[in-house]
Amino acid sequence: MQKTWFITGASRGLGTHIAQAAIRAGDRVVATGRKRESVTAALGPDSDQLFAVALDVTDAAQVQASIDAAVSRFGGIDVLVNNAGYGHLGFFEENTMEDVETQFDTNLYGVFRVTWAALPVMRAVRKGLIFNVSSVGGLRGSEFGSLYCATKFAMEGFSESLAVEVKPFGISVTIVEPGPFRTDFLTPESLRVGVKTIADYDERRAMLRASFEQRNGSQPGNPQKLADAMVVLANEAEPPMRFLGGQFAVDAASAKLRAMQAEFDRWRDLAIGTDGDNPA
Ligand SMILES: NC(=O)c1ccc[n+]([C@@H]2O[C@H](COP(=O)([O-])OP(=O)(O)OC[C@H]3O[C@@H](n4cnc5c(N)ncnc54)[C@H](OP(=O)(O)O)[C@@H]3O)[C@@H](O)[C@H]2O)c1
Fold it and tell me: Which of 79, 101, 106, 183 is the most interior residue, by most CB within 10 Å?
């Protein structure tokens, strides 16, 4: 059955590839981006399979208008892809509240806004799939990535909870956790770095910034292959709760799970001992 996809951040990177993969599979795509012309430049003109719509996920009115436009054009939404996002790099102490608010406004609140607007459409027909594009940084924290990881960890807790709430309506949620993929993610156009500096961090900041610059363009992950994998998942009767992207993510997630289990086991008796003997 031909599906309708609604994709945020389809002007570049993974979002463009997901739109192309869905179109190749014969589906219809509402491809959204901050600038409609960038979406059209990436994907071509509107057709019977493609509808480009302007959407900045930080703009609640535009979110509702874009969902309404999608429903008017294609009659519904089968697959929502919350993909729009960017990485904010910096040591936590060097970040500001403005950095925090801007990062959360796109990576988390943007997902909330779009999901709120799309859910009534999916609930009405008792079916749908929501892909929330998280990161391996949503499974484990990393130096220089506290704000980004905070948004992605939050997205994971949100997604797990939402999955339980919407299951009775036939709606599934899949968290996508890519490792490093070769998109614009690490380019100066996408990545943001805090401007506040503290001298104690100078040496490590310089080292980490150089390391991120070096990684740009040599990431092992192929966004076209990840997009094709998402099309496969969208056709599954029971899509997974989590889907890792690439070897790096598989190894990092497995190591994290092993370390967590070992630590829980090590402190098990002390943890269990905190139950009971409460005052009446
Ligand atoms: N590539 C990786 O290594 C990697 C790894 C883990 C997770 N991810 C996640 O994958 C997702 C896609 O990133 P990418 O790798 O494709 O990076 P990208 O090439 O930089 O693309 C990011 C996309 O998000 C859009 N965007 C940013 N802020 C937006 C906003 N406020 N409203 C609407 N769209 C907005 C950008 O639109 P503009 O063109 O308007 O800027 C662009 O289309 C992100 O959620 C990212 O966190 C990526």
Answer: 79
| Residue nearest atom 32 in ligand 1 by C-alpha distance | 56
**Catalytic one of 3, 11, 86, 152:** 152
The DSSP element (H or E) to which 213 belongs, if any, is helix 202-215
Which pLDDT value is given to residue 244?
Answer: 98
Other Cβ atoms less than 10 A from the Cβ of 154: the count is: 18
Summarize pLDDT for 74-128 with one digit per residue, the tens.
999 999 999 999 999 999 999 999 999 999 999 999 999 999 999 999 999 999 9
Question: Which of 222, 225, 197, 221 minimizes the C-alpha distance to 209?
Answer: 197
- How remote is the C-alpha of 11 from its chain's centroid? 15
- Give domain limits for the chain: 4-251
The CB of 148 under 6 Å from ligand 1? The reply is: no
Distance in Å, CA 88 to ligand 1 centroid: 12
CATH topology of domain 4-251: Rossmann fold (3.40.50)
